[in-house]
Amino acid sequence: MGEQVSSRGTWSGRLGFVLAAAGSAVGLGNLWKFPYITYENGGGAFVLVYLAAIVMVGLPVMMAEVLLGRRTQRNPVGAFRILSQGKRGHRLWPGVGVLGVISGFVILSYYSVVAGWTVRYIGLAISGRLEAMAVHPEALQTFFSGFLGSGAQQVLYHTIFMGATVGIVILGVQKGIERATKVLMPLLFLILIALVAYSVTTPGFGEALTFLFRPNFSQLSRGAVLEALGHSFFTLSLGMGAMLTYGSYMKRDNSIQKAAILITFLDTLIALMACVVMFSVIKSFDFEVTKSAVILFTTLPTVFAKLPGGSLVSALFYLLVAFAALTSTISLLEVVSSYAIDELGWGRRRASLTMGGAIWLFGALSAVSLGANDTLSSINVIGRSSTAGVFGTLDYLASNWFLPVGGFFIALFTGWAMNPRESRETLEEGHGPMRAYSFWHFLIRFAAPLAIGAIIVSVILGVEYN
Ligand code: TRP
Predict the structure, then answer these.
(1) CA 242 to ligand 1: nearest atom
(2) Protein residue with its CA nearest to atom 7 in ligand 1
(3) Fewest CB atoms less than 10 Å from the CB: which of 31, 81, 179, 432?
(4) Does the pLDDT value for residue 331 go beyond 60?
(5) What is the 3-state secondary structure (H, E, C) of 72-133?
(6) Mean residue pLDDT across the chain
(7) What confidence category does residue 372 fall into, taking pLDDT thresholds of 50, 70 and 90?
(8) Ligand 1 pocket member 30 (CB < 6 A)
(9) Among 144, 138, 110, residue whose Cα is nearest residue 124
(10) How many CB atoms lie within 10 A of CB 203?
(11) Which of the four pLDDT bands, split at 50, 70 and 90, describes residue 438?
(12) Is 27 near ligand 1, meaning CB less than 6 Å away?
């Protein structure tokens, strides 16, 4: 028997890990941010660049994170502490894990606020109020601004979402996270398939496909390439040890490479399906899509309202977004909790309640800071938003600094500090001789640090995206 780590768990099997990790990856990034930036960057060519970034950078870094977690069976801090023992800079490497835990804390605090909006919208859609308001786009705008400005409401829905998140994480890896994702992910997929089937019947479907899959490279700016790269990172939940933590619960008889390919494929498929749905309905009407990230909460309901069965479609749609967000928030909380469990020796109950409570409190700060109208145009969860208010500042810090810097060092550590014999050994457990090892090793040593380095430099130089 190896060293017993209290309160740690494992997935029941391969499917448990893949669904939980896919649940982490599929979130607001897929359903909100991706369609929105694809739209702004002119479609097809951007999609191609994004796919390249996913395969060349996202996938290898995901394998690296899962590898670090599975090898050590620890949270991000513990993983770096164990693996850097006896190596140069062994006192600094755990700092990468610390940065990851802080990122999880920060991202969850505001992610949960936005996720709370979907809960509000499910209620609105079911009661028919959303459809009633959506007939007059200004009414919906006014409602949305008022909703953002109401501190009490913002805190209420944030509380509901954090409550659900803590409620799942407290039950543990198998009984909480795995069980929840095994229900939510198939449901999410079913709803999305239903919505895609629906979008086929809308007049804008063909135009949407052309827009998405016919590349027009003259549309592509240098900023777009960087944005695609940055997003490939966020959408796969990389750079802060979320995949590392989930990997630490993975049994040794499963192939990391196969699981990572499946997770990446699911994440990309769902992002593209979301685009098909949203662009089909938007292109069905001559809608002026404003350059704002609030498309999901203002433009889309207006469009849904014009379609037959609008209330049902929009209720399903917001339910989908809520499920996707919930499987992401639990992964964010799990990173922070696993740190408290492994490193501080806390029990799971105490860890999830205390950390969840602290994050809730911190998030309440962004929730009440949303009021200002200028926030409306700057909200861009996980994007390069401007730095308006607590909300914008946190998002800016996390997605532009914490995640790229974390990912950069994760790639450097796995590619350069770790002995190739160790990384190969872990990747070959449950897989057998790995033919793609050298290719992976090349990508993690050179391609990933270079690409992520380019993002960081561009942030430092203040390169604008659009
Ligand atoms: N990937 C999720 C999304 O696309 C967000 C997310 C969940 C995340 N966990 C993460 C991002 C960890 C970075 C790190 O919405």
Answers:
(1) 12
(2) 328
(3) 432
(4) yes
(5) HCCCHHHHHHHHHCCCCCCCCCHHHHHHHHHHHHHHHHHHHHHHHHHHHHHHHHHCCHHHHH
(6) 90
(7) low
(8) yes
(9) 144
(10) 11
(11) very high
(12) yes
Q: Is 24 in the pocket of ligand 1 (CB under 6 A)?
A: yes
Buried b (16+ CB within 10 A) or exposed e, 226-246: bbbbbbbbbbbbbbbbbbbbb
- Ordered by start, the domain boundaries in the chain are 6-460
- Find out if CATH 1.20.1740 is the number for domain 6-460: yes
Q: Are 68 and 414 in contact (CB under 8 A)?
A: yes
Find out whether 7 and 347 touch, Cβ atoms under 8 Å.
yes
Ligand 1 centre distance from Cα of residue 53 (Å) = 16
Residue 245 CA to ligand 1 centre (angstroms): 13
- Centre of ligand 1 from the C-alpha of residue 237, in Å: 4
Task: Summarize pLDDT for 204-253 with one digit per residue, the tens.
Answer: 999 999 999 999 888 788 888 888 988 998 999 999 999 999 999 999 99
Work out which ligand 1 atom sits closest to the CA atom of 32. Answer: 15
Check if 235 has its Cβ closer than 6 Å to any atom of ligand 1.
yes
Name every residue whose Cβ is closer than 8 Å to that of residue 383 and which is 6 or more positions away in sequence. Answer: 33, 37, 293, 395, 399
- For residue 99, CA distances in Å to 65, 95, 166, 401 come to 14, 6, 22, 10
Cα 154 from chain centroid (whole Å) = 21
Above 80 in pLDDT, residue 133? yes
Centre of ligand 1 to C-alpha 443, Å, is 22
Which of 37, 272, 331, 399 has most ligand 1 atoms within 8 Å of CB, for mutation? Answer: 331
For tokens 């709370």, what's the residue? 116
How confident is the model over 78-107, as a mean pLDDT?
96
Spatial neighbors of 235 by CB under 8 A, at least 6 apart, are: 25, 27, 29, 30, 33, 34, 58, 267, 271
Best of 328, 333, 403, 452 to mutate for ligand 1, by most ligand atoms within 8 A of CB? Answer: 328
C-beta of 332 in contact with ligand 1 (< 6 A) = yes
Which tokens belong to 142?
């006014």
Tokens of 201: 């019947």
Q: What is the pTM of this model?
A: 0.93
Question: Residue ranges of the alpha helices (H) in 135-178?
Answer: 137-149, 151-169
Query: Cβ atoms within 10 A of the Cβ of 251, count?
Result: 15
Helix/strand/coil (H/E/C) assignment for every residue in 20-38: HHHHHHCCHHHHHHHHHHH
Q: Is the CB of 240 under 6 A from ligand 1?
A: yes
* Closest alpha carbon to 154 in 460, 363, 413: 363
Q: Give the max Cα distance, the chain.
A: 66
